Structure of Dimethylallyltranstransferase:
Amino acid sequence: MRPVVRHGVRQYSRKTSQRSSLRCNGGYTLTPALSLSTSASNLRYTRLPQSSAGGNASFDPQTRRAYHSSSKKSSAWAAVASVASNVVTNAAKRAVGAGPGPADLPIHPLKVVAKELSTKFLTPSIKNLVASRTPQLDRVAKYYTQAEGKYVRPRIVLLMARATALCPKAGPESLRASAVSIDQAISPVSILSDVNPTTQSASLNPAPDAEPIPGVNPAQRRLAEITETIHTASLLHDDVIDHSESRRGAPSANLQFGNKMAVLGGDFLLARASVSLARLRHPEVIELLATVIANLVEGEFMQLRNTEAGERDPVWTEDALTYYLEKTYLKTASLISKSCRASAILGGADAATVDAAYAYGKNLGLAFQLVDDMLDYTISGKDLGKPAGADLELGLATAPLLFAWKVNPELGALVGRKFAEEGDVARARELVIQSDGIEQTRALAEDYANKAAAALDAFPDSEAKEGLIQMTRDVLKRKK
């Protein structure tokens, strides 16, 4: 099946070719760049040729051919549902081979790494990682570990570790980090003044590594904990910035302890993550995760404005979507993509495998956030575990609204003043619901999810690979 671009959303017919392009204002196709040698947030724009037959055309940058819309009429939502079914079927065939039978049954990602993610292992390890001898700080640092989250990021890191264990290796020297105790200090402890009560003794007298996990070395296991710690720190900071009152069905940390304590708690988690990262003794991995922390801050600054220029009465252009996708990469996909890359590196994978791991994480991360932004319009706060509709209340223009804005110029003034006047939030929400902005957001999320699955094509078949592919399906179906 091939996509047809109609009013900014890909639609499908039997006569068109499936390509991940998005028609933008001014006759351009917006194609997220997949080249692994370019910036992760880079975007290409290709001028669409004029259609001799009239109507809309989508452009394939690889074949330089234009595809024209079919006369078959169907709703955007029906088209999206149809292509989603095909994405699932094709991904399953790539992972376990075509044909009926038990082998075609999906592998649930949690099943593959259930032991590593259980409350017996991951949660206690993270609590040990962030412990403090200062009682109040210890409570703040561990607060979001009490009501366990989805552990999406550690799950991805561990699945990637297992999946890449079967891939070609770069060489024995790439496994040096695995042979060193991940709790052993690099500098003298007396100089570090490391006051983590759970790891200080380990620094002085390194203990044997924890129970081995097939396909996952100690450094990769620690990476999963570090990734979740960085994510939790970002939640503490975000909840202060966004004035959130709830998180994971409980009062937010800023509501429970106050803004100052919450900010300091987030800072402390980043410090603990940095120490653990350094003790992996792998410069490239340290560099990757350090830039994640910088990306989180850069993305938050970008989110302070809905458009790059921050004009008062903006007019819709494709630049608005470009700006949004770059911000989304920095705030969400950077951590997932670079953690995937780091997991492959720590397993000694070769360059092609490392690049594929990064591509998977980047595209999955973008799909994840697109769905998250869509849920803000479609799911109640009770089901989300956090306030619904918060994006508009915070003055944020996310994907559903950006797509709606293209066909509703009235939204420009609301975007410019960040929905600050009385009735702005309700009106903006009404215009989004009336438009096909939600359907377009889902279609774009499906594009990224499909690219994430395709990035694993060269990986040997395994339960871990199928688990990673299943996550690309699950991200589209999630309700919280």
Notes: The chain has one domain: 109-477. The longest helix spans residues 318-346.
